[in-house]
Structures are given as structure tokens and as C-alpha cells.
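Progress against Task 2.4 (sequence-to-structure conversion) is shown through the following example record, which the project officer requested during the mid-term review.
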Amino acid sequence: MTSKPRNRHLRKIDAALLGAKIVKDGVEIVPVLAPLKGAVGIVITILETVRTITTNKEDWATLGRRLSMQIQSMQDKLSHCPIPHSTQLLLAVNSYEQKLQNVLTRVRLASGCGLPKRFLHHQTDKEDIMELNLEIVDYLTDFMRDISIQTHETVDQIKGDVNRAKDGVERVEISVDAIGDNSHISKLIPVLSATGEDHDVCLHGTRVTVLDPVRQWVKDPSATQVWWLTDVAGAGKSTIAKQLSTEWKVQRLLGGCFFFDKNRSDGTNKQGFCDTLAAQLANNQPHLRSLITQGIKEIGPTLSVSPFEDKLQKLVIRPMEGVALVLVIDAIDECNERDRGIILRSLLSSLSQVPRLKILITSRPERDIVELLDSYRSCTNSLHDTELKSNQEDIAAFVKYKMRSLVRSSELTEKDVDQLAKRVNCLFILASTACKAVQDSPDPQATVRELLDSNHNLLCDVNSLYLTILTKAYNVGQVRQASASSKQNLLLTVLKAILAALTPLTISTIDALLGIKITKRLVGFLSSVLSVRADGTVLILHPTFREFLEDRTVACDFYLDMADAHRMMAKSCLSIMKLELCFNICRLESSFTPNRSVPDLDERISKYISKELQYGCIYWPNHLISSNITSQDGEDGSPVIQVIADVYPLFWVEVLSALGKIPKAIKDLQDVESLSLGEELDPIINDIKRFLIAFSTPISESIPHIYISALPFTPIRSHIRQAASVLFPNIISVLIGCSENWPEPPQEWLGHSSDVTSIAFSPDGRRIVSGSHDKTIRLWDVQTGQPIGEPLRGHSDSIRCIAFSPDGRRIVSGSGDKTIRLWDAEAGRALGEPLRGHSSGVFSVIFSPDGCRILSGSYDNTIRIWDAETDQTLRGQGNRVYSEAFSQDGHSVVSSSDDKTILLSDAKTGQVQGDLKGSDSTIWSMAISPDGRRIMCGSGDKTIHLWDSETGRVLRGSFQDFSDLIRSLVFSPDGHRIVSGSADGIIRLWDTETGHALGKPLKGHSGSIWSVVCSLDGRRIVSGSNDKTIRLWDAETGQMLGVPLQGHSGDSQSMALSPDGRHIVSSSYGSTIQMWNAETGQLLGKPLQGHSSAIFSAVFSPDGRRIASGSYDTTIRLWDAETGLELGVPLQGHTDVVSCVAYSLDGHVIVSGSWDKTIRLWDAETGRVLGEPLQGHSGGIESVAFSPDGRRIVSGSHDNTIRLWDTGAGRIIGEPLRGHEGTVWSVAFSPDGRRIVSSSWDKTIRLWDAETRQAIRNSLTGHNDTIWSVVFSPDGRRIVSGSGDKTIRLWDAETGQKLGMLLPGSSVYSVAFSPDGRRIVSADDKAVRLWDAETRQALGEPLQGHHSSIRSISFSPDGRRIVSGSSDKTIRLWAAETDPVSSLCSTKTDPLDSIHIFDGEIASRSHEKREMPPVLTNLPGIPYGHHFAPPGFLNCTLSEDGWVSRSNELLYWVPSHNRHGLQHPHILTIPTISPFRATWIDFTDFCYGTSWVKCRK
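C-alpha cells generated for the chain above:
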């Protein structure tokens, strides 16, 4: 993904800033450069101001880079000048400074900084900037000429310097392209504020006793590689780190530095650590740039989400191999404990790779840091030891230096300064804060007296001093007249904002959020404890001040309750949102253009979305969460209600879309939900979260489509829809296909179109990822069971395996296409190119524990370890590999094979480390103990073997007590027990130490066990079997908990236990996923409306008003043929598949046949069963039919016979009709009831006399495969049959002669005549086809819409509609006319004239009648756009990710469950809320394109 223009612009400015600040560091400590101090400061101010300009950004960036280059050139010149400097040189520098001041004034004019409002609209155009660039070149020319006398340079040399200056844009690349324009290194995202720019260096001549030993250590090649400088807070560690890093930078010894700071959100974690060091390394050591670039290339597109250790190795450690350099890591105690442990362990483990590398680390002596670094602790005396003379002298020198100007002005005496220096206890932070307090005081001498007053003892510790400083802040100018309490409240309010801010805020942003205008004055008076950057950002000078404010025992009245601070910030964020959010906040002109293609979107964001609004929109949920607010907090929830109870959520989503923060908002709202804010708020928060999840695709891609795509498909009763519908009338109207409510979590998660092969929980348990034979990967929200975003597409074959990375940011998938792919789990996109190397399908993928490597197993009999774009093949197992795993530390790989061995291999090199032998058969399963010390395997010889992973020694004899091979093994979390599952359906527990069986075998499964899992607490065992059940067991007693978890209709394919052990998710052969409560075994979610499995039969009632259907789920359901709504409750009574249903001619009775070998009769009105089941067949029943007079029923069965039944008496009539040699798949009466026709698995058709039950002539032959369906024509003169041989045949019913053959090209499962006998309809794998019965020609194109084989087909009594039932669990109604404008609902009483159908319910329509779109029966042959676009908007396409567009112009987006119905408007799908629901859209009032803003009233 290419970087945005804004990012490129900022990178260039930041690069220039970094270069200028490096010069500033040198100026601070190198005397020869001292004259440049003023010029450098001005250049830095110019660059920081340029950073805020929003017009002509690239031109300003060029000017900034030219200035940065100039100041570096001047540094080089002055470094060769003798000291003392001549008057000529000092005058040259002064002249240059004055000219820079002129530049600064013009830059400020362009930015509007500090100018009257009448100037704010002034924009400096390109010509002005170019002129300024030329002037800057002239400035350098003058400077070089002025100093030529002192440096004795020739005119040619001066010209050369000037020419190089004119070429500055190119030259600057050499010094700062580490984070500039270099095509690879510019991809790094360094934390610029972590380079120590806010820290001062040591005062010249101080801290020598600390600095000199470190300086000597760096030069000593035999010294330890790490120097740990540790002391209490405020001792001056960061100043020392800054001093040394600056020196080493000048000496070209510095690799890079990172200054942690808990006042910055990016200064307390490992994010950006590697990028920052790598960027500095490339800048400081240009000769290593190519090695860093190589590392970036190897990591590839995953750079931003690549694991820490991977980035550290490739971007930092590896480039420094063989080079003597220093890294400086300051204040690592301010990094969170988890991340600092990772950083330190990674650095320490890498030392052997870089023996010439030295690392200086500073921190407080925190326990976890001491454990890792104690052996590297410096021998330097305490930095704050009051007994050390050097410390006393250093502090005295520092205080005198800071107070020198006050002494010169006679505001202080030398005695005052000496006393102050003695009283600060050698603590640097105390001295620094005291000096700042005196400097900022209007009466310095009075402040010194107060500090020295022994009665108050203010300098005994820094907390007392902080208390004094805050107390004095009461007297800030604009609040003098306020009461003491209000002054204090105002002061605390500002401090709360500074401390609670999740990213540093500017003064203006704090003012705006708090609704005040005195932050600048308050912060100014607190300059001894707070600092303000050039851009106005406010920072706490030292973490001890934060610690003081958060400690009630020392802060007293100034104590800040951080929960209260976050609550205040949450309210402030919500208030600014209510004030500033508005419709079309970025002033976008067209809805056709996605966000990424709006050329000036960044400028619009800067112009129209204030910094305070950006902050509020991004962070209000985080503040709310940190505030610990609950529903019991009364009116504290009111600001939330005010913002989210209207249309503001849509305006908020606009800002999130512009800033790319939709995924973050979804996560944050999930956290907010956990607060339980009350009955009023909780449903609204949930509604907004559901909106973001359901429509993440369109709202992330295009701001206008929040309204014109997401809103129309939002459920009618949702809060967002109800609040916005009146204000946004001019959007598409979804007449059919929009749900009334958000769907409840379903029992079956639908989204894949084929078998779900692999599933996994994310590490936080909030998402599930699934892979399928349909070649896609899906992410699911665990709470709602709904898919997140669009399917991830990229593989060209089925997905065989899938896994989350340990941090949950990436997904890895393996496929039958022989490749492995990495995906960004947040953005939902592929990362880089597929990993290729296997020569056969990939069946297993695993991340290493640190997330740096991927282990894959393939049917090519190899295992590979992948490291970004590189891979190692683990060879030595030439036979099939069945199992592989990383060791707990990630250093080794263990694999098993059918060659009866287990191999241990080095995870980095792929070299075989050991070969474990002991099994006499194929090793099917394997596990590693939690401590990594033992390896066990289960083999085909029905034994378990245990090895010591260190020595490869077999631990005790094999575990034996099995009657079949062992398919699954797992250690308990404590490693004391082993759980095994075998092909005999039995689970056993074993004592790891003794090898003895624990208790009795766990029996219950009736099929092979393919998976066993232990809960994290070790108390439960979960097992999955091919008996289609999942079972829960008590690990202590061995008792089964509850009943088997049944729900899947096929064998389970994959199973996973959530990280918290509360849920089990499973998939099966089929396209569904199910989730269970791991405590109770209850299937979670709401059952799907309609049949839960394949539909085998669907028929119209004789009056055409109802449809009856029979299913694999053992039920019969009745449906309204006009609306698609289910009538009553399912008809239940059969115990196996209902394979066939039929109506009596009067429509009063329904007959059903089942695989349970019975026939049942039902009252068609009440659904009540009539009488007892009809029993007589010895096999399942496949077909039933009523005689025309309704007095008899005929049935065909798996027992190869046909039977006749007396409907009234409920008994068998005579003996079975025998003759077929296989299952009788279809039976039918002739129209006069005198004959019966049957078809069979034996490829024949037979005719029978219905009275005598004798065969009429020989069987009809001609088909060469199973004949699935046979039926008489309405006049009884013909027979039509459909077969698995992909043909339809017509027969003369009297003579048995063949009348012709139709060729649909696919197996035909069902055929039927139209009521007039002129047409034939057939059903095959996925298409319904119409034929002319006379000419035997196809009528129109096949009717496509079902996603699986069609098992049943029939005409309505009037011949105008066709009903089909399919294995995809749906029934579909089709228009039978071949006229392309005929309509399913174009009856005289169109049901849609007076009703809306939503989510299976009927609601009256209050708005004016709208004309329905025409139904296109030959849709597949008609171009897209003729039925789902506004008039005149032609040549549209519907992409697989739901966009209806034309030539990259986005028209609107369609949810996945509406796409099928949109493409096939002639189909009414039952149930109406299925993923294939009918969808009709009205474009009458649709405003789009350049008119999209008119969608709002």
C-alpha cells in the first residue's frame, strides 16, 4: 500500500528536523560550533512551523530540507575554523541569522501562526516559495564568501559549495534518507520524539566521574557489551544518556538511541523501537544503509506488523555485525513491563552475533530489570549520593549555570545560589525544578528565600517542591479574582487533561477540549514541571511529577484521581464531538470516489477536522473505559447519550473513515459494552458496534457510502436507522431484503459456500478465523456470530489450515494450491506475495511462539520454516509427515512421520538436531509438554511413547492399553497428565511420571476421535469425533458433562477452545460453524428460520397458495407461496430424513415419506398428524404420491419395492410391487389413476396397473445411469424421466416408445410437466431449466440461483411459477413465463402494493406506492446494470466484494446476503431472511455521484 501524500510530506519535514537537531546536539557540546546555536534554533523553529502548513506541502518540504542541508554544510565549515573565531566569521553568522528571521516571518505568515485573523486566509503560492528557495541559496552564498578570508578557500571552492547547496534536495538524501525518500528505508515509521530531542546534555565539566568510565568502556574491546546505569528517579540518567549519545554521534560511533517516556503513548511500548533504531542507523552509518534495505526487503509488506524479534534481527542486529557501534536505551523502566522484558531479552540474546556492539541502558532499579541486567550493573557510584564530592560539585555548577543571568542582573546573590545548590541533596531533578521555579518567578529572591526556609523544608525532596510550585500556580493572571477552590479546580482540570491524554496534546487542543482559554497561562506558570514544544504540545518534564500527582499521600489537595481524569476527558471528547461533528465534514463532492483516490483528503482532514475533534473521535471510548464508569453513576452517562442518541454516530463514523480508524472503533466499542452503562445506553452502543461490523467495507472505503450504502441496508428498527431515516430520505429504498432487526447470534454461522476446513480463535477470544474449500478465509465476531468485512481471497484452491499470530495481528493460511499466505487481521488484506516452496498442498501452518517464523507441513512430505520471504526445508523425512510443532521457546521444531521416527530440528537453520526412535509403526499424533522437556507420540502400534527432549532418551516403557491407533494426544496444562484419543472412540488419561492409566477409560463416542483439548485450568476435556458429536468430560472424575454436543449434520472437521475456556467453536463437512458453551455444552445462538439441512422435496398445494417441504432435518414445513413466510410450526414426527411430500388433490391432506421407513399423513390446515404411521417397507422411502381421487397412496423405497396404501383405512393394499433391482427413487399415478410409473437405481422405468398391481409390458430402458425422477404428462399420454446420465427422455406412455431426448449437460434429479403439458422443467446440480415439450428445445437460459444440487422441482397449478427445493436449505420460487418482463408478483393484487416484507414479518407501508422492478427470467444472459442501477447508469458490475460500480465509479455497496437476490430478482427465496433472500431496490429518490449530498433532507 503506497503511503499517503501527507505521510510523505511529513517524513521529509521530519527528516529535515532530525538533521537539524543532530546539528543542534553538536553545537551544544562542541565549542567550535557555538556560533551556530542561534541559527540552528531558528531553522528548527522554521521546520516545526512548516510542518503545520496545509497548502503546497511538497514545496514547503523542499524548502525545509534545503535549510536543513545548509545548516549541516555550515557545521562542516565551522568545524575546520580555528578558535577563537574572527570577527568576520561572527558577523557572517549574525547576518545569516537575521536573514533566517526574515524567512521565519514569511513562513509564519503562510501558516497563520500567531497572526491576526485577517491574515489567516493568506496562502503563499508556489512562486513565492520558489523565490524564497532562491533567496536561501543566496544566503549561503553570502555566508561562504564572508568566511572565505578566515578559511583561505579559493573562489572555486566557494562556488563548489554553493552549487552543492543549490543541489541540496539531492544532497540531503545522503544525510537523512534513512527516513526520507529512499524507496525502502522511507517505509520505516520511527518515533522521532524517542531520539532524545527533549533532553538536555550535561553542563560542560560536570558528571565527569560518571561519563569518563563509560567513555573508557566504549573504547575497551574486552569490556562487557552492556553497561547498565541505574539509579533513582530524577538522578540525571537521561541527561547522561543524551550527553553520551551526542558525543558518540559526533564520533560516528552511535548506531542509534531510544529514549522511553511514559508521557508519550509511543514511549511506553516496543512499537517503533526497531524502526527508530534502524532509521538512525541508516542516517548515522550510511555504509550500512544497503544492509538495512535488504532487511526491509526480506520482511516485505508485513513490515508494519512484523514480529519484534524479526525486525530487530533484520533491521538492527544483522546490519551491525562486525561493526563497532553503540546503542543507547534510556529509561527502559518507563516501557511497560511485558515489552521491556521482550526488548531486553532479545537484545541480550543477540549479543553473540555482534561482539563489537556496546549497549548503554539506563533505568530505575525495577525488580524485573534487575533480574535481567544485574550482572551488567555499572560500578559507578550513586548519581545522587550527597557524600560524594563530585556530585556536590556537579550540582553546584549546574545551579550556578542556571542562575547566572539572575546573578548578573543582581536579582540574586552568589550566596543565594550557593545555598540553593547545597540544599537540593544532589538530586538532579530537584535542582532542575528548583532552578526553573526561581527563573519563572516574578520575584526570584523571594522564591529562593521560600525554598531555603528551614521551617518549610521545601528542598528535602522533590515532592515538597512540586507542592510549592502548584500552590504558587494559584496566582495565574486571569484567575486571580476567582475563589481559591475554583482556581485549584481550574489548575487541576488542566493537569488532568495533560496526564490523562492518550497522546500529547497542544495548548490549543486542551483549551478546545476543556472549553477554556487560559491553558497557555497556566502551563507557562508551571514551566518548571511542564515543557511546551514549538508546535504547542505540552509534556511533563519528568515522570516524578506524574507520580507525585497520582499519589494521594504526598500530593494532598493536588491529588489527581486518574479514573476521574479519564471521565472528565471522556465528557470533553463527547462534548467537542457534539459541537463540531457535522454531515459531510470533509466537503466531499462525489460519492463515486473512494477515500484513497481523493487527492487532497489529507488537506481536507487538516482543514475541516480540528485536532481536538480528531482526538475526541479516536479516544473517547478509551477514556470512558479507563473512567470505570457504570450504570450506577447517574448522569455521568448523559454526554454519551447526547452524542449517540441522534445522527451523531454517522457523523462520528465519517471522521473514523477519514482517519482509517474503523477497526479500532469496533474493538473499543466491544470494551465499552463491558461497562454495562445501563438499559438506555447499552442497546445503542451495541447498535453502533453492529453497524460498524456489518458495514465495515463501505464505510472504510468511502465516506459518502456511510449514508448511501450502509444506511439503506441497516435494519429498520435499529437505533441508527430510526434516528437517521427522516433526515436522509434520498437514498436507495430497499423494498424487499432489509431486515427489521439486527440478526441474533445464530446457531449456525453462514458465510462460506463449501466445507469449513479449519477454525481458530484470536488470542483475545473476540474473533474467529475460518478457512474453507470455497478458497476463502473469513473473520467472525464471536459475540454476534456475524462475519467481519469481506472474505479474504487470494488462494486458488481450498484452504486446508489457518492460524492467528500470537499477537492477533496476522493470520497465516495454507492451501491446496501449494502456497502459504499472510494476512493483516485488522485491515483484512493480504500481506505481500504468497510463500511458495512446497510442491504439494499445505495441510498445516503454525506460528512460532514469538510470531517470527511459520512452520508448515505439506503433502510433499516436507516441513518448511518460513521467515518472511526466506524459508528452510527440514529434510530427512522422506515419507508423509503427520504432525509438527514448535518447542515452547521456539528454538526447535519437532515432527513425526510414517517412517516411525520423530525429528528434532533447529528452527533457524533447519538442521536436524536429533532422531527419536522407539515406535514400530507410523506416528499419527504428537505433543510437547508445557515445560518443553518431554515429547510424546501416539502411533499405529497402539502405544504412546515418551522422550526426554534434551537427551532424546526414552522415558520409561510405552503406554499400552489401546485397541486401535491413537489419533490425538495432549498434555494437561500442568504437564502431569496425558490425554489420549484413539480410533476406537475411547479417551484415556495417564500419569506422566509413572505411565499408569488414571481411572477408567472415558467411553461415549461411537466413532474415531480426531481431537482432544484440555481447558486452561485442566479441569475439563473436550473431544471431537466423526460420530458428529463433541463431548465434555470432567478431567478428575472421567464423567461426561451434560449431553453430547450435537448440531452438525456432517463429520466435524475442526474444533477450537476459546482462550478463556468458555466457548467451543466447531466446523463440519458443510459450510457452517457452530459455537457451544463449554460449561454447559449448550449450543449457542438462535436456530435458523426454516430448514436446517438439505431440502429433498417441495410441492405446491392444489390452490397454489402454499408450499410444503420435506428436509434432511426430519421436519416438514409449510410456507405462504406469495410472501415466503412460514405458516405455523414445523410438522414433526419422523425420526429420519423426510425425503418426499405430496398434497392430496383437494389440498386437505399432506403425505410424507421418510428414511425412517414410515409414511405419515397430516392435516394440511392444522398440521396435526392423522392416524398412526404407515409401516411396511423394510427400507427408507424415497417417493410418495396420491391417486387423483385421493383414496390411495403409492410409495417407492430403498427396499426395491413399490407399495399401495388405502388412505382412509391407513393400511397396505395387497403385496408389494416387485420388479426393480435397486432403490425405487420415483413413483407417480397417471392422471386417470389407472397406472403407476416408477424409476429406479437399476436404470429402468416400469409401468404398473394400479388395480391389479401387475407390470404392464417390459421395463423402459435407455438411460445408462440412475433414473432419479419420472412423471406422467397432464394428458397421460407421455412420460418424462431425468437421470444421472445427464439426459432427460420422453416416452410414449401407451407403447413405451422413446419420443426424444433432452441434453441439459448435468445430472437431472427432478422433472415435471407444466399443467398444460407444453413445457417441461428440470432440476440439476444448480440450475432450473425450461424446455418446450414438443420441440424439445431449451426455453431461455438456465435459471441459476441455488448454491447446491436441486432435489425437487414442480409447477404451480396455474403454471406461472416453479418451486424448487435444494441441498442449500432453501426453497425458491421462479417465474415460469419466458417473457423477460413477466413478474412473480405482477398479479392483479400485487402483495407489495400494500405491505413491506421485513425479516419474515409484514408491516404496513405508509409511503406512496412504488412500481416494482421487472423480473428478468433470462437474467444470466442480460448484462449487469439493467436491473440494479438507476436509469441511465449503464454497464454496471457487481464485484465479489459487493460494490456496484462502473469504470471505478462506486455507485453503492450491497451486503453479502442481498447480492444473490439483487442479481436474481425473479426469485423469491424461502426463508425470506436466508443469505439468498429476495432483494428489490427502488432508485426513484436515489441521489449519488456529484449529487450525493442531496441525500440529506
